[in-house]
């Protein structure tokens, strides 16, 4: 088991895929409120359960009554997910896998997870957000590599103006590109295998759909 890789179980929907199961295998686990339901589907045993428990049904509470809980009032200054991440960092996390971060009824939470992931990356943490069928990785100044199936879809929405953006090993490569804030130029690209991203300045997220080959 990796002592510095933590899976954070959030409330968004997930789909069981090989990539998701492989990503969380051997990690330490913290559940945020109703995200605990994913522990059953993934066969995980959280070491801590945090939140105000307003979205955790009684059956879930009974099933995991042995897991230590850290309750918070409903009127709090942070989401259950951010609290769970803070606890993981306190316990030594350097890599964070946010499961259930990208889908569900609350688009405000999904957007906040993406923004928070970028901030965590700027603080030096390795972050992956996943629903099983969709994955997201922060892109900040520097270089990252994303291992994707050939012909699968990905996009790079910017959270700011992007300067010096390069995308290699994709159907629509870019080199030292200036992407204005709000531009759709980097939406719906197609991977040719491992895709390399370089950025000189700005903040973005790589949204990948490893099981989506509709761009073929």
UniProtKB/TrEMBL annotation:
NCBIfam families: thi_PPkinase (TIGR01378). It comes from Rhizobium grahamii. InterPro entries: Thi_PPkinase, Thiamin_PyroPKinase_B1-bd, TPK, TPK_catalytic, TPK_catalytic_sf. This is Thiamine diphosphokinase. PANTHER family: THIAMINE PYROPHOSPHOKINASE. Its EC number is 2.7.6.2. Keywords: ATP-binding, Kinase, Nucleotide-binding, Transferase. One of its GO terms (biological process) is thiamine diphosphate biosynthetic process. GO terms for molecular function: ATP binding; kinase activity; thiamine binding; thiamine diphosphokinase activity. Pfam families: TPK_B1_binding (PF04265), TPK_catalytic (PF04263). Residues 142-205 form the Thiamin pyrophosphokinase thiamin-binding domain. It is an enzyme of class 2 (transferase).
């Amino acid at each position: 088991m990796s002592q510095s890789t933590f899976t954070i179980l959030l409330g968004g929907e997930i789909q069981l895929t090989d990539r998701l199961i492989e990503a969380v295998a051997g990690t330490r686990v913290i559940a945020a409120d109703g995200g605990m339901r994913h522990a059953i589907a993934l066969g995980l045993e959280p070491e801590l359960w945090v939140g105000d428990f307003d979205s955790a049904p009684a059956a879930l509470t009974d099933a995991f009554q042995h897991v230590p809980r850290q309750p918070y009032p409903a009127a709090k200054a942070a989401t259950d997910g951010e609290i769970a991440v803070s606890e993981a960092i306190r316990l030594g996390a350097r890599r964070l896998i946010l499961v259930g971060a990208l889908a569900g009824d609350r688009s405000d939470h999904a957007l906040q997870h993406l923004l928070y992931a970028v901030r965590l990356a700027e603080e030096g943490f390795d972050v992956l957000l996943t629903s099983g069928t969709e994955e997201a990785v922060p892109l900040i100044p520097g270089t990252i590599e994303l291992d994707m199936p050939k012909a699968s879809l990905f996009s790079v929405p910017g959270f700011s103006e992007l300067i010096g953006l390069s995308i290699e090993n994709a159907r629509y490569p870019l080199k030292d590109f200036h992407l204005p804030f709000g531009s759709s130029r980097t939406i719906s690209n197609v991977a040719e295998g491992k895709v390399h991203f370089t950025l000189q300045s700005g903040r973005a997220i790589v949204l990948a759909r490893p099981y989506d080959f509709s761009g073929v």
